[in-house]
Amino acid sequence: MLLLGGALGLFQLPLIVGVQSTVGWSERGTTTASVLFCRQSGQTIGAALFGAVANGVLASRLGGAGDLDSVTRALGTTAAPEATRRAIADAVHSVYFGAAGAAALAFVVLLVLAPRRFPVLDSP
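The structure corresponding to this sequence follows.
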């Protein structure tokens, strides 16, 4: 998780600078705002979709487990039922497989839609 967070954090600034270098000075604020808006929208939609996947898998695996309080109490003990542990593992695996699929799809879209060379504008 630390590696992923560090890599994404180091990637964000060059992305914004790269986008800013393709437009004139009068459009840089709009361009930066567009990148940040798209990033936040993607994070929001991704968190909602992957949360829905995790909740759906947990609900299907723990259908007869009772209410949320009993599951939460069971998770806090060392004697958590194996079914609960398996359900959580299945939910996490489903989310990770979904994220891998989304990343693969994004990579294919990038290869198809992205120009081979971005135009770079000179300073004013």
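The mean pLDDT is 84.
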